[in-house]
Design brief:
By secondary structure, the chain is of the alpha/beta class. Helix content is 25%, strand content 16%. β2 and β3 form a beta hairpin. The chain binds zinc ion (ZN).
């Protein structure tokens, strides 16, 4: 080929085997010298389209809170400093279930995505949201959501609108005793919007919201990270689906695409939870099946304390198949996860 002019040699021979990147399923993200992962400061940098904490192993029973055993937590690489976050706007959203939530939009200093906090309970307040900004009017504050009580036509002041603040229906002292529920959820267009039965992200989002809006709940927060496929993006995620249809399991598919099986971090989520007042010893109850996530969310200096891990059991398992997701794909996926990921229920 080297004897030919370059314009005649558009086709290249395969590289010698030794120079090609061969996925090694035991590789950690750091050891992947041929294709280092992008910076994952932004949290769930990349994750297989179907990931451990969003899909759960097959044990059928109701979720029970699980006490956290610090000795059982695996050491995990954590960010040494948390990102800076700021809640720039908040609004009340009535939902189709009848429950109300407050949607909080955050900016940060590590990416330019609008990460979200879906907040159940008007007593949960963002520090950065309520901070007074230089030169703003009362109307400015109400427009960006920094008001107390409820908005109504003709309202002039952002402050002390409601005597029932901070929580109209419940005893504030009792609320202080129970750690609020928290779910860290990564965006999944296919599972939440496009009716995909390859994963149960949509179901898990619904279930987290349901638990946080039960009459005896003291509210909670779903931190919604804008990480489609947890960072690999929708295009790569769809390639992984095609590889799965060609016979790979979900872990193998991601590795074949040179994405680590799991290289997430949760600094943004930790910073947002701190902003929402969830730091300190009161702690949180974390909805997850992934024990590794517990320590990751707690932050580098245990800024957040996870008092309990609350498992998420797939609806199909809880109801003996009456409700929930049914598909060949999700069953195969779950089997792969059970074998390769350390997820737990109960
Ligand atoms: Zn999904």
């Amino acid at each position: 080929m080297s004897d030919l002019p370059s314009h005649l040699s558009p086709v290249y021979a395969p590289a010698p085997l030794s120079s090609r990147h061969i996925p090694d399923f035991s590789l950690t993200p750091d050891s992947r010298g041929a294709s280092p992962p992008p910076p994952n400061l932004i949290s769930p940098a990349f994750t297989p389209p179907l990931t451990p904490e969003s899909h759960t192993p097959a044990i059928v029973h109701d979720p029970q809170p699980v006490p956290i055993d610090p000795a059982a937590q695996k050491p995990q690489k954590l960010l040494q400093t948390l990102p800076e976050v700021e809640c720039i706007v908040r609004a009340r959203i009535p939902t189709v279930t009848g429950a109300e939530m407050y949607l909080h939009v955050y900016t940060n200093n590590v990416d330019n995505k609008e990460h979200l906090a879906i907040v159940f309970g008007s007593h949960i307040r963002s520090k950065s949201m309520y901070a007074v900004r230089p030169g703003e009017t009362e109307r400015d504050r109400m427009i960006r959501g920094a008001y107390e009580g409820r908005l109504h036509p003709g309202r002039l002041s952002s402050r002390t609108e409601s005597k029932s603040w901070p929580h109209p229906a419940k005893d504030p002292d009792a609320l202080k005793e129970i750690p609020p529920l928290v779910r860290i959820h990564s965006e999944c267009y296919t599972g939440e919007t496009a009716w995909s039965a390859r994963c149960d992200c949509g179901e898990q989002l619904d279930e987290a919201a349901r638990l946080m809006s039960l009459p005896d709940s003291n509210g909670g927060v779903i931190v919604y990270l804008r990480q489609e496929g947890r960072g690999i993006g929708l295009g790569e995620k769809l390639k992984a689906y095609n590889l799965q249809d060609l016979g790979s399991d979900t872990v193998e598919a991601n590795l074949l695409l040179r994405h680590p099986a799991d290289a997430r971090s949760y600094g943004l989520a930790t910073a947002m939870l701190l902003d929402l007042g969830f730091g300190g010893n009161r702690g949180i109850r974390l909805l997850t099946n992934n024990p590794d996530k517990v320590r990751a969310v707690e932050g580098p200096h245990q800024e957040i304390v996870v008092k309990q891990r609350v498992p998420m059991v797939p609806l199909a398992w809880k109801t003996g198949g009456v409700r929930g997701i049914h598909s060949e794909e999700i069953e195969g996926y779950l089997q792969a996860k059970i074998g390769k990921m350390g997820h737990m229920i109960g």
